[in-house]
Each structure stands twice: as C-alpha cells, then as structure tokens.
Design goal:
Layout (H helix, E strand, L loop, with lengths): L7 H15 L4 H8 L3 H13 L3 E3 L5 E3 L1 H9 L3 H17 L2 E8 L2 E8 L14 E3 L4 H8 L3 H8 L6 H10 L2 E4 L6 E9 L5 E10 H4 L3 H19 L1
Helix pairs in contact: 1-3, 5-10, 6-8
Protein name: IclR family transcriptional regulator
InterPro entries: GAF-like_dom_sf, HTH_MetabolicPath_Reg, Tscrpt_reg_IclR_C, Tscrpt_reg_IclR_N, WH-like_DNA-bd_sf, WH_DNA-bd_sf
GO biological process, one term: negative regulation of DNA-templated transcription
Length: 233
Amino acid sequence: MGQLSGIGVLDKAVEVLRATSTTPLGLADLCTTTGLPRATAHRLAVGLETHGLLARDSAGRWCPGPYLATLAAKAPDPLVEASGEVLPRLRDRTGESVQLYRPDGRQRVCIAVAEPVSGLRDTVPLGARLPMTAGSGAKVLAAWAEPALMRALLSDAEFTERSLAEVRRRGWAQSVAEREAGVASVSAPVRDRRGAVIAAVSVSGPVERIGRRPGARWAGDLIEAAEALTHRL
C-alpha cells in the first residue's frame, strides 16, 4: 500500500484504484492483490464504479473508469511543469535525448521529453509505457519501490537485488543494451519534498556514441537535474 492518510476507508479505496490501474481484476484477484476482505473489496469497488472511478470490461472485471480521465485532464502536473526548464538544459549539456519517467504499477510512463534538434535520436514517445524490468530508469524506480513491488519486478528483471542496492548506494543507474539493443542510458531519482522517489530523469542514446559507461560521463549532470526538479516542486 502507498502512503497512508490515516483515513481508513479512503486509503482502502485508493488501494483498489491502484490495484486495478495496471490490469482488470475480478473480485477474487482484487482481494488477493489488495489483501482486503471480500465484502470490503466488493463494497469499495461497486462504490467507485457508481462514481465513474471504476468501470467493468466485457468479462466483468474492474478497470479504471471514465471519470478518472476527466479529473486527470483538469489537474496541473507540477512535475511536468518543472521539467519544462530542467530537461532542455540537460539535453543541451549532453547533446542526447532526455526523458522523465513516473512509475505506474509495474510500468513506467514517459511524462516529459527533450530531444536534440539534430542528429541520431533515441526517441521515447511522450506517454510511452515501458517495463520496470529493464533500463536505467527502471532500475532507479525499482531500487526505491515498495518491497513487495521490488520483489515482483526482480522475478522478471534484467537486474538483480544486488545491483539495486548499488543504485541506492551511488544514487544513479546506468544500462547498456538492456531494454533495447544498441541503446545505453543513465538515470537518477527525482524526489518529492519528503525525500520519496517519485520519478526518474534519464539521458539515453546510441551505445556507439555515448559509450558503455554513460554514468561516468553524465551521472553528475543527472543528479544535478534531479535535484533541480525536486527544488522546483
């Protein structure tokens, strides 16, 4: 479960929303994922469905409802707003593609990008959903994930628990041809004002151009950019 508000029913309802955000769930799977009793999970899911926060697919499983999109469209995103100045500066310093990833269950979502104006790019489309099991951005987010999620990711990941411990120790991660052949990247964690990791900022490009040790070149720049994002939050 994520951070608790102290309002029990609200925390449980949010946990139901989180559980159904990555894959549609029937009642039995919803109970298994959330740990909630059957009656509680059913009552909360039906209530959220009534308000349009959940819906049901053709198999009767709960999934995100239409009103979530309405709410999201109206909400400002401070992290995206902060990236508008920081990411282009990092792109200009490195000359490579820059991305900002936010974790979403077992995936990471690219919420901001800054591409070089010319030359060969490593383009990750805005809004792209990538696995949390490969790549430097995935390592950063997995390294500070909740223990249950970390264990689940490690079962299919290209990295190990030992490598995540090393990421936490040095404060950044790198990967070479891990998520995609011929591509290398380096990433650093972005924290909120309480110190919790909420995103990963990354620089990526062709291995033949940026080398097999991108962290040696740009870890300091990534950490500086991550701190700038945190400051602007």
